[in-house]
Amino acid sequence: MYHDIFKKARLTRAVGFVVESLKELWDTFLMLFIVVDSIGNIPIFYSLTSGMGREERIKIFEKSVAVASALLVFFAVFGYPFFQYYGVSFTDFKIAGGLLLLIIALQGVFGRVEAEALRSEDLAVVPMATPLLAGPGAIYMVMYLNSVYGLLPTLVSIALNTLASYLILTKSNVLLEKAGKNTILVLSRIFSLLLAVLAVSLIRSGIYEALRG
């Protein structure tokens, strides 16, 4: 009897651990997905690669996703320790990051700078990998996620977002044909609004912690 009770308790703890881990992975994936905004970047990426063939465009997309992923992994691992070395507290980090995300969100809600002004010799790296995919907001977010959820969920989130970005961008021609450019822009505005809500939450939490301290 006691053996059965012990087995049930252990099974309950294991199920609870799995559910909690899945929730953490979902939370980290969703927050980073909103900031990266691969869907909203589709019209910009297509504008930047106008005149290229489909195979060349896909190669550019692949390189930009790979470079962005490498940047996010680097800052997830080494970014926040760098700030800690210079005495920046997590509360300072949260308030500053929240303000940064709010500015980025407002730019997304009210419209971005035209992509043609961002042309460079290597489009896959600048501006496509950074700042469009792995911009200041995404870099802040991976450092924040590492601080709150730990390195492993953050790295898994980066990997899942890398896969999602790759699939979204390489299949973006289908999305544009089926949904249309206006629908993509509307979705981008919705993601920007969600990002603004998240940013305000971070600022409010940071200010509360600073006042309490």
TrEMBL record:
The keyword Cell membrane is assigned to this record: yes
Protein name per its UniProtKB record: UPF0056 membrane protein
Family: Belongs to the UPF0056 (MarC) family.
Subcellular location(s) per record: Cell membrane
Pfam families in UniProt: MarC (PF01914)
Alphabetized PANTHER family for the sequence: UPF0056 MEMBRANE PROTEIN YHCE (PTHR33508:SF1)
A single GO cellular-component term on record: plasma membrane
NCBIfam families documented for this protein: NAAT family transporter (TIGR00427)
Membrane spanning residue stretches: 29-48, 60-83, 95-111, 123-143, 149-169, 190-208
Keywords from the UniProt entry: Cell membrane, Membrane, Transmembrane, Transmembrane helix
Topological category with respect to the lipid bilayer: Multi-pass membrane protein
